[in-house]
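The instructor's notes for this session suggest beginning with a concrete chain rather than abstract definitions. Hand out the sequence below and ask the class to guess, before any prediction is shown, which regions might be ordered.
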Amino acid sequence: MILVTGVGGFLGGALAHRLLAEGHQLRTLSRRPLPEWESLGVEVQRGALEDRHAVLQACQGVDQVFHVAAKAGVWGTFAEYWDSNVEGTKNIVEGCQTHGVSRLIHTSSPSSTFDGKDCLGADESKPYPEHFLNFYSETKAAAEQVVKGSNGPNLSTVSLRPHLIWGPGDPHILPRVVKMADKGRLRRIGPGDNLVDITYVDNAVEAHMCAARNLGPNSPQAGKAYFISNGSPVRLWEWVDQIMRGLGRPPVRGQLSTANARLAGGILEWVWRTLRLDGEPPMTRFVACQMGTSHYYDISAAERDFGYRPVVPFEVAMERTLAHFSGILPARRS
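After discussion, reveal the predicted structure:
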């Protein structure tokens, strides 16, 4: 039996489908009912990550855990992020240790090392920043350290840092970008030539499968964290324009410097928190830096230590993604 947290999400769902296709029995932990997964034979246990009792119960009788679930996004309170991402991960680790689970594969993020500056081909020696740009980054870094610290002779752990996961079914990045463009609110941030790593969802799943396949007390990946991507960065705004063209939209017009976008993000964050406004600000410091700087990573450690190779090339990934979203996104209004 394999426990996969986050099957109701993008990556967790894709990973669960892969595991089911390979004949594995799955269990998941979810705050909400998941009848679509129950119909596929997945055992759904209700509960939240911060519910210690529910997590420990979910880990009983399990051989390995893929801990994918987390509070993502760029906005929320520190308590929300800490409870889900850190306390929830501590509960997962305790559940594994209590019930003799031998392998834990944790989904982390390159955001855990992001300091808002250009990052050109960094490897896993890149340190955590002294100051984080948002609570998501801070708590993912803390969760990653929990997982690293729990590695031992009875529980082998590894954390994976897939960067900017996209593809068919993406509920976050591509729909949001298109929605902003259709409202006339999308602006190019920075000079427009910044290089950014992206990870097609099937490649992110492949990385998890490869990392898990030979994970054990003496495996080279045990107790470590790894950057994951397609293996070749893209010019971010050229990629966005390619998506726009493929979905019948014009290229992005208008431009804002990274410095001005970051300043605006800081002001808007202050306004939203001070006035306790609903929703999230239209710009944050984290988003400004993510969209306006270069950040790509060396994945040779993942290739060397557990044989990860991207299985879907960029051109095929684009074709599949555009075909998917062309069928579900509303036509652009003239």
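Then share the key points. The chain has twelve helices and 15 strands. The mean pLDDT is 94.
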